[in-house]
Amino acid sequence: MTDAVQESLIDQLRPTISADRLGTYLTATGFKEDRALRLYIWNAHVGEAFHLPIQAAEVGLRNRINAALLKEFGDDWWQDAKFLSLGDRERKTDIETARRRISNRGATLCTAQIVATLSFGFWIGLLQPRYNPEVWSKHLRTSFPSLPADKSRYDLADAAKRVADLRNRIWHHEPVFRMDLSEEYAAVRQLLSWICPIKEGWVRPECRVPTLLRQKP
Fold first, then answer.
1. pTM across the whole model
2. pLDDT tens digits, 50-76
3. Residue 10, pLDDT score
4. What are the b/e assignments for 37-69, b being 16+ CB within 10 Å?
5. Domains in the chain, number
6. What is the mean pLDDT of residues 111-135?
């Protein structure tokens, strides 16, 4: 592709990608336009590849926490008075928002729907100190049997927050190419192994992140 044609493509893409967003990639590649566009596409592909292990970790985390809440507060923990008394305003708002969304789509209001609708951030919020000792002094080790003995609820919360931060960058289509994605991938895998090492081993061979990291423009 000639420089003239490449410049034309950049100009045509600028209104829909934005000058600022394109500028990030142009700056990173020394204003080599062909490489900038390849880096842009690569950034999207690597974000897509992260979806599999992040999804596995997010779904696993919420199901592990849900199991603890079912044990402590019963089948409808999300409307149990004792559970709600432990939460902050943000957690209560999250539940009300989830209930409204379920109602709006005409689905049955039940625990399975609540669990599926609540955000990653909600579940990480349930690892706050305010839920200890009522929940985690009783259920941490039974709910997370693969959490190493030298790791605590704090470590689990920190690991989940790191993965959620990466998730949010990817889900909001932000550049991730400047991050140490090898370390981020290791962090996702570590969290998933704490949640369920069998699931981590099942997902790992299907994940394209390592291959894509070797193909970075």
1. 0.92
2. 999 999 999 999 999 999 999 999 999
3. 82
4. bbbbebbeebbebbebbbebbbbbbbebbbebb
5. 1
6. 96
SS (H, E, C) the chain: CCHHHHHHHHHHHHHHHCHHHHHHHHHHCCCCHHHHHHHHHHHHHHHHHHHHHHHHHHHHHHHHHHHHHHHHHCCCHHHCHHHHHHCCHHHHHHHHHHHHHHHHCCCCCCHHHHHHHCCHHHHHHCCCHHHCCCCHHHHHHHHCCCCCCCCCHHHHHHHHHHHHHHHHHHHCCCCCCCCCHHHHHHHHHHHHHHHCHHHHHHHHHHCCHHHHHHCCC
Report residue 151 CA to chain centroid gap: 21
Place of tokens 């003239």: 4
Full residue range of the structural domain in which residue 96 is found? 3-214
